[in-house]
Amino acid sequence: MPYVKFLGTGGARFVVAKQLRSSAGVLVESNERKLLIDPGPGTLARLANSRPKVNLDTVSGIILTHIHLDHSTDANVIIDSIAEGGFKRKGVLFTTHEAVEGENRVILPYLLPFLERYDFLEHKKTFEEGDICFTTYRHLHSVETYGIKMDLSGKMVSFLVDTQYFDSLLEYYKGSDILILNVVLLESRQNIMHLSVDDAKRLINGIKPGKAILTHFGMGILKANPLLVSQKLSQETGVEVVAAYDGMKVEI
Ligand SMILES: [Zn+2]
User: Fold this and answer.
1) What is the rounded distance in angstroms from the CA atom of residue 94 to the CA atom of residue 97?
2) Tell me, what's the pLDDT at 35?
3) pTM higher than 0.85 for the full model?
4) Centre of ligand 1 from the C-alpha of residue 87, in Å
5) Are 175 and 135 within 8 A, CB to CB?
6) Separation of CA 65 and ligand 1 centre (Å)
7) What is the Å distance from ligand 1's center to 10 Cα?
8) For residue 10, which of 15, 61, 183, 215 is within the disulfide window of CB 3.0 to 4.6 Å?
9) Contact yes or no for 40/74 (Cβ under 8 A)
């Protein structure tokens, strides 16, 4: 059965700096094919300490949605590990042009030849890796960023990663069975291009997924208690809303 495992659920600078929640990424598995989404700081360690332990030679590759550090720092070491230091040409990488070619590129150029292939995320472009099929959508964030709508055995699982709110998100993610939202902020703040709890409510009401999962918490939400925040959203939207925790596994 396909699953999504939240290795980490922390986001934003203070939570990451203090590791109040792990900033490791998300693991997706379908038919023995594993992909890591946004391997932030601590992902490698979490994979090794995960139960059951995840061996990197069983991981197909990485989807990196944008270059921010809390999403990208472990990408290089994971690429190197999958390819066994370049002795094997192995691993796939799906990421932005900025991550590979930009002035602020975060993927080390010498690692690219280690990969079996890499491809660039674009707006409304569809990718296949084994039986995992996904389409990406451009978000509004401070750097080039894409969200992911993934088909896992016929179920639509969406990763609505870092973005500010805009109405087109409702159209992009409609039909989601599971909607995973990076909700960094308790309250909207100007010039911070992240979703707040109110934005999440608008999105859940507009998309009406079968289930919504909140993750990537900033300090304000952690203080307010993600569990209480999710319970309130459930009552207000009539949709089952849960708060992710480090190590949470969701079978699809
Ligand atoms: Zn970001």
Assistant:
1) 10
2) 98
3) yes
4) 33
5) no
6) 9
7) 12
8) 15
9) yes
Q: Are 184 and 216 in contact (CB under 8 A)?
A: yes
Compute the distance between CA of residue 100 and CA of residue 30 in angstroms, rounded to an integer. Answer: 27
How remote is the CA of residue 146 from the centroid of ligand 1, in Å?
10
CA of 33 to the centre of ligand 1 (A): 26
CA angle, 99 as apex, 94 and 105 as ends, to 5°? Answer: 150
Q: How far is the CA of 162 from the centre of ligand 1 (A)?
A: 5
pLDDT at 68: 97
Q: 3-251 has which fold?
A: Metallo-beta-lactamase; Chain A (3.60.15)
Centroid of ligand 1 to alpha carbon of 68 (angstroms) = 5
Centre of ligand 1 from the C-alpha of residue 1, in Å = 30
Q: What pLDDT does 155 receive? A: 97
pLDDT-based confidence at 190, cuts 50/70/90?
confident
Cα–ligand 1 centroid distance for 60 (angstroms): 24
Distance 72 CA to ligand 1 centre (A): 10
C-alpha span between 34 and 16 (Å, rounded): 25
Count H helices and E strands in the chain, helices first: 9, 15
The full set of domain ranges for the chain reads 3-251
User: How large is the average pLDDT for residues 59-80?
Assistant: 98
Q: Contact at 8 Å (CB) between 151 and 134?
A: yes
Q: How far apart are CA 230 and CA 201, in angstroms?
A: 10
